[in-house]
Amino acid sequence: MPLRMRVNDKENISVALRRFKKLLERSGIFKELRKRKHYEKPCELRRRAELRKRAALNKAMKGKARAGR
Fold this sequence. Notes:
By secondary structure, the protein is mainly α. It is built from three helices and no strands.
C-alpha cells in the first residue's frame, strides 16, 4: 500500500513532518517495524497471544461486573 502525502508550498516543514509521522502511525508501519526488529520464537508468540487473550477476558469481566452494579 503506497502512502502519499501532499505538502503545500507555504507549509512549514515541521508541520509537514508531524503530518507524515501521524500518517505512518495510522498506517501501522511503525508497529510492523517494531514487530520485525527482532526475531521472536514461536513459543514467545503463543505466550504473548495467551496473555493478550487473558487480559481481554479480564477487561470484559470487569466491564460486566461494573454494569451489574
